[in-house]
Specification:
This protein has 13 helices and 18 strands. It is an alpha/beta fold and about 425 residues long. It is elongated. Bound molecules: ligand LTDHYY67. Isomerization of 3-trans,5-cis-dienoyl-CoA to 2-trans,4-trans-dienoyl-CoA.
Amino acid sequence: MGKNGKEEKKRYVQRFRQEWLSMKPFSEWLHEVPGDSQKAYCSFCKCEIIAKFHQLTKHSEAKKHINAIPDQTVPLPLAKLLTNAETNQKSKEYTIKVRNPLSESDTYNGFEEEIHEEEESEDGIYIVERIEGQAQRSLNKVISIQAKAMTSTTGYEFETLKITSPKQFIKNVELNRPDKRNAMNTTFWKDIYNCFTKLSVDPDCRVIVLSGAGKMFTAGLDLYENEIFKSLLSSDSQDSSRKSFKILKGIQELQESFNVIEKCPKPVIAAVHNGCIGGGIDMIACCDMRYCTQDAWFQIKEVDIGLAADLGTLQRFPKIIGNDSLYRELAYTGRKFDAEEAKSIGFVSRILPDKNTLLEAAILIAEQIASKSPVAVQGIKVNSVYSRDHGVYQGLEYMATWNSTMLQSEDVGKAVSAAIQKETPVFSKL
Ligand SMILES: CC/C=C\C=C\CC(=O)SCCNC(=O)CCNC(=O)[C@H](O)C(C)(C)COP(=O)(O)OP(=O)(O)OC[C@H]1O[C@@H](n2cnc3c(N)ncnc32)[C@H](O)[C@@H]1OP(=O)(O)O
């Protein structure tokens, strides 16, 4: 209420919008101003601008700005760092102050020779390098450096997983015990659960690529670290039903470590190279899509260690390949099957020549998905999983209920008007 008792209208204050960062006319120079959402920063002109769309447009067309565009256009797709360097000509020593909008300022000291390098910090990876042709240094002269700040991966530190953000809204979850062929130990089960639980609600994550470090994707269950079996089987009680309850809970916890991948509303693309064994099949069967390298091979190996696979392969794999007879053959025999066979049965949808091209392809598709409405994409995932497990009419009912809310999303209006105007829509974080 206002002073005179009348209801005051809320004033709309335009604030910096994340989607501007990826819009074509602004993407190479626009940055946030940390702590001031009503301002924006142009790294070409080194000046602040009012964070309003029309002001940004006006600025991008201004003579001053056009003159400030570097001759050598520097790709700064995700650049978020504002940089500014002071150098001491005599000693060739320099100090680069890296202002990171994701946290406080950083200062980088070093010598000219060291200027090109990657720095990993809590806020992500900075790639700091000198732009060719702009190497002259003088006191207080601003040296342009290319600084790509990948979106933050703060809070994603795990012993058995490495999380990076190769592009905006994309996270790469990499199994990271290469010396042990990414075998799944006790820490891994906790890490993967915590990681996907966090990714599920992270507005900076729209798509996930799941890959493995080193020689192969994964050797499955860690056979040498028998903590799992010890903890599953150890019990103070001699009573078999009490023991069984404990084991049941343990298995369900392990199952949940992979279920979270499927429950995560963001699409997950498995990028498999070389071997994918046992628990690896359980895990990638939870993913939305599977790509692999030419040298990839797969094995439902549990039968060879005296187990019926219990973390989802028997439930999900046959639904993916739609061939019950072949699925049973693979599960009963533990026979290896290669990339070609995996593609022919529909377990993977693409084969790439090697690991690099595999990751490139996965990230490219991830980028395409990440550019779509996150409301729509997540709706597709949730409803696809639901429909797999329910009848057509139950699925339709769930879908109708879902969209009775989601059709009201601003994304629908944005997407439709962008389609009419032949423009690329930019969607807010979800
Ligand atoms: C409640 C149950 C829940 C889940 C159940 C899941 C079931 C399964 O996952 S069944 C599948 C179990 N896995 C296996 O049977 C694979 C065994 N490993 C191999 O066959 C081979 O190691 C290989 C994976 C084919 C890799 O061969 P290679 O490239 O020649 O490397 P290696 O020299 O053999 O191994 C290198 C290094 O990794 C360690 N290692 C490999 N696999 C595992 C594993 N499954 N568990 C633990 N450690 C593994 C191996 O010991 C070597 O380590 P060093 O320290 O260098 O000796």
